[in-house]
Amino acid sequence: MDKLIIEGPCELTGVVNISPAKNAYLPILAAIILTDKPVRLLNIPDLLDIKTMLKLLSNLGVEIKKEGNATIFNAKNLTSHEATYDLVKTMRASIFVLGPLLARLKKAKVSLPGGCAIGTRPIDIHLENLEKMGVQINLQHGYVEASTEKLKPASMTLSFPSVGATENLMMASVFTIGETVIENAAREPEIDDLAHFLNAMGAKISGMGTSRIVIQGVEELQATTYQAIGDRIEAATYVMAALATNSELKIKNINPTHLDFVLQTVEKMGAKIECSDQCITVKKHSGLKAVRIDTAPYPGYPTDAQAQLMALCAFVEGTSSITENIFENRFMHVPELMRMGVDVTLKGHTALVHGGKKCTGAPVMCTDLRASAALVIAALGAQGRSDISRIYHLDRGYENLVEKLKNCGAKIRREKE
After folding, report:
1. What does the DSSP 8-state code read for residue 361?
2. Residue 183 forms beta bridges with which residues?
3. How confident is the model over 384-403, as pLDDT tens digits?
4. Which of 72, 94, 176, 104 is nearest to 143 (CA)?
């Protein structure tokens, strides 16, 4: 098992190139099941979650080959409709194959998903709305067994704007002849990206960016070449790292509008941000002030950038208030930050960060993907050496993090524990 060693404090400078988004590519990869034509995807990031999804697709019978920066998929001859526990246990996104398998094969058997231990994250919204489309669901022995004679169009209102449910239902609806409507749909940019990918193959999806998505069924999908959007959460992480170390950093390959709420939040704190096409530049600041935020579905403040903001607030004078409204167990990074001298008081779903106190390097442990990023940010700004263990969590969502930070001047290395 590997660990990171970071010597702080450090100043970052230069350019960070953001990778295509993991959370955009995972449903896009699942959507490959929908077509028997070849699909070329460009610059798929080298991440553990992506590798798990590729293995899952391979087990279903999808042929995969690499050609330079392109990966070519052929799902013409699917050999299985089952996503087994040994693959699904590490990654919640495996549930994305449920909708495409039902659309293509009329049956699916998918193990109940795993992933980060940040909350229960039930899949009820997926299942209850698939039932409205004529799917019979049976939960037994840890698996979702689903089948249908024919998927039918439906009008559905989600009880919560779930990203995964919105994406699964979109994919399940592609071949339902007639009009399917998803109300109270999630509005994240990754959903728009999935819709654009499906439309590039010949689907008819409208309403992207709104809470009402409409799918007109088609008979088949065609071949296409596609690249996912830049990873807004990776970009947000580097924004926080630059601010925590009071650095000037250019962050490229990202649409700044996808981070509107995050950038507005740090600008209220006193950050100096410049945005241009596919680029965010963080300037040095003359001091930041405390902030109050509540996580919310897009376009609100993203839960996936909550831990990183908390790490930043450790270096800001005053008391910041961070309320987590999406997941019930997403403050697991707090005890680890406190080992580094960060002063945090927890009151239910709210964390009060009493910033401006000296942060020092310490041995700490990653507990989930975004908590891991928070520890890296804190270590970059802290005095002395930090040893960050269990970094396999980081490998799930941050491509070439060590190289990217090292190229910007960070004293960071990866070693075997």
Report:
1. -
2. 157, 212
3. 999 999 999 999 999 999 99
4. 94
Q: pTM of the full predicted structure? A: 0.95
Catalytic residue among 116, 313, 359, 408: 116
CB half-sphere exposure, 67, CA atoms < 13 A: 8
- Strand 82-83 with 107-111, pairing: parallel
How many other β-carbons are positioned within 10 Å of the β-carbon of residue 281? 17
Q: What would the mean pLDDT of 225-247 be, rounded to a whole number?
A: 98
Between CA 108 and CA 23 the distance in angstroms is 22
Angle between helices 48-60 and 22-31 (to 10 degrees): 0
Which H or E element spans position 189?
Answer: helix 189-200
Q: What are phi and psi of 258, to 5 degrees?
A: -70, -15
CA distance 267 to 262: 9
The total of other beta-carbon atoms located within 10 Å of residue 217's CB is 18
Q: Is 10 a catalytic residue?
A: no
Question: Do residues 197 and 226 make contact, with C-beta atoms less than 8 angstroms apart?
Answer: yes
pLDDT for 117 beyond 70: no
Q: At 312, give phi and psi (nearest 5°).
A: -60, -45
How many residues would you count in the chain?
Answer: 417
- pLDDT tens, 253-276? 999 999 999 999 999 999 999 999
Listing DSSP states for 241-282 in one string gives HHHHTT-EEEEES--GGGGHHHHHHHHHTT-EEEEETTEEEE
Give the position of tokens 């804190």.
378
Please report, for residues 93, 398, 404, the alpha-carbon distance to residue 189 in angstroms, rounded to integers and kept in the order given: 16, 18, 24
Handedness of CA 289, 271, 310, 256 (dihedral sign): positive
| Cβ atoms within 10 Å of 244's Cβ, excluding its own | 27
10 Å CB burial of residue 252 (0-12, 13-18, 19+) is middle
% residues pLDDT > 70 (the chain)? 97
- Using alpha carbons, select from 348, 272, 345, 283 the residue that is nearest to residue 313: 345
Q: Is the pLDDT of residue 179 over 80?
A: yes
- 312 closest CA partner among 266, 263, 264: 266
Whether the pLDDT of residue 178 is over 90: the answer is yes
What the block records as the tokens of 352 is: 């009060």
Question: Of residues 237 and 396, which shows the higher confidence score?
Answer: 237
